[in-house]
Amino acid sequence: MQELLVISGKGGTGKTSIAAALAALAEDKVLADCDVDAADLHLLLRPEVESVNEFYGSHKAVIDAGRCTKCGRCMEVCRFGAITKAAPVAGEENSTYGSRGSIFQVDSLSCEGCGVCTLTCPAGAITMKPNLAGYWYISETPYGPLVHAQLGLAEDNSGKLVTKVRQEARRLAEENKARLIITDGPPGIGCPVISSLTGVTLALVVTEPTVAGWHDLERVVKLAGHFKVPVAVCINKYDLAPEKSREIEAYCYEQGLTIAGKIPFDADVARALVNAVPLTACSQGAAANAVKAMWDSLMVQMGRIGK
């Protein structure tokens, strides 16, 4: 089983559009969206969700009001300001709120799960409990099965969720005896990218002919090199800045990188996005043909890697 990962050094290069276009061309595959912080591959593949599963990330502090002595020690030691006093309900100042007229509460968005409050609470009123950080899904699309996820607002551990998506995609591929996994990865070079990148057969890095595009291409190529992952490059909308495209091509040649495709600017891409369908499923234009040629090039390169 092989895995093709589509990534980019920066957002906005057209990575997801190209991943969807490749998904429409491939056969005998499973699809995965590992851009869990801003998942949008499903917008083009129109999945029908078959399985919804909870994802628990880090632990969060929870205060047992019944055991709390209201000493305030937890609020003093929390360096993140996650523990605050709650104002008493009118008319209940002398009941459950005690003589201090307030109780302590945890802001789950600010809590980093360090656990210092649990160690310093003299009454043992604070415990760390698993935090529901998001959901992952198994869906069916017109282009094959898709594993995707949604991380909650301001939640962390996206690297762990990426790993879970990849594990489920591989399990599904083994069950279906699929030969290929096509993964839409996150942009940048952070933890989610590392979780997406390690162990894949080939990383297709989508860039654009701009200074920022070239700079971030260099960063992600170095990252892939660190994990010994082969890289192919796609220059999207290359004809909007031909000179910069030639500079990127020269860089790729110096680094021994294969330029798998050069996609021209094409209004059909915008029309495909508006209609929420993969480009190669609705167009015979210049960009769609370039993606098809790139797909052939990728299959040749992955065949060589497989040997």
TrEMBL record:
SUPFAM superfamilies: 4Fe-4S ferredoxins, P-loop containing nucleoside triphosphate hydrolases. One of its GO terms (molecular function) is oxidoreductase activity. Keywords: Iron, Iron-sulfur, Metal-binding, Oxidoreductase. InterPro entries: 4Fe4S_Fe-S-bd, 4Fe4S_Fe_S_CS, CobQ/CobB/MinD/ParA_Nub-bd_dom, P-loop_NTPase. Residues 59-88, 102-131 form the 4Fe-4S ferredoxin-type domain. Pfam families: CbiA (PF01656), Fer4 (PF00037). Signal peptide: none annotated. Gene3D superfamilies: 3.30.70.20, P-loop containing nucleotide triphosphate hydrolases (3.40.50.300). CDD domains: SIMIBI_bact_arch. This is NAD(P)H-quinone oxidoreductase subunit I. It comes from Moorella mulderi DSM 14980. The gene is ndhI_2.
